[in-house]
Design goal:
- This protein has about 140 residues and is α+β, with helices and mostly antiparallel strands.
- It has one domain: HIT-like (HIT family, subunit A, 2-Layer Sandwich), CATH 3.30.428.10.
- The chain contains three helices and five strands.
- It has a five-stranded antiparallel β-sheet with strand order 1-2-3-5-4, covered by helices on one side.
- A hairpin with a 3-residue loop joins β1 and β2.
- The structure holds adenosine monophosphate and zinc ion.
Length: about 140
């Protein structure tokens, strides 16, 4: 998908309407059009980056700052008991709109939702050696 076809770029440009709850030079936040809970909010960088890997660190940090600030505002606005804050980062993780966005999903006692542990498949059975190797590989990739 090119940036011209990107729904969220069109929201940034004002070509598609949104219920915007925050905007500055770098980021924007608006209500999800198909909310999983009242107050479900998306926070995006205004520039088109598909995933966290593509997003420069300063932009990602700014987006996270907005998530942090709005998280409290959203919780208070809908009197939520908690929130799930998450990114579907890449198609294999379920990302449908290929423009980076963080979800703030209000959560309520007994809402029947699941914790973030429920999003992946079955837990792998990893030996201590495999865990050591993975930790070293991640450390070396930094
Ligand atoms: P994801 O699966 O993480 O890519 O989530 C995409 C989210 O964008 C979904 O929760 C959709 O409901 C939401 N969405 C799609 N189109 C719009 C739109 N025009 N305005 C607001 N939210 C949208
Ligand atoms: Zn875009």
């Amino acid at each position: 998908m090119s940036e011209d076809d990107c729904i969220f770029c069109q929201i940034v440009d004002g070509d598609i309407p949104s219920r915007t709850v925050f905007e500055d030079d770098t980021a924007m936040a608006f209500l999800d059009a198909n909310p999983l809970a009242p107050g479900h909010t998306l926070v995006i960088p205004k520039e088109h980056y598909e995933t966290l890997e593509e997003t420069p660190e300063d932009v990602a940090a700014h987006v996270f700052g907005v998530l942090h600030r709005l998280n409290t505002a959203v919780e208070h606005a809908v009197d939520a008991d908690a929130t799930t804050v998450a990114f579907n980062n890449g198609e294999a993780a379920g990302q449908e709109v290929p423009h980076l966005h963080g979800h703030i999903i209000p959560r309520f006692e007994g809402d029947g939702g699941r914790p973030i542990h429920a999003v992946a498949g079955e837990r792998p059975d990893l030996s201590d050696e495999e865990l050591d190797e993975i930790a070293e590989e991640i450390h070396n990739q930094r």
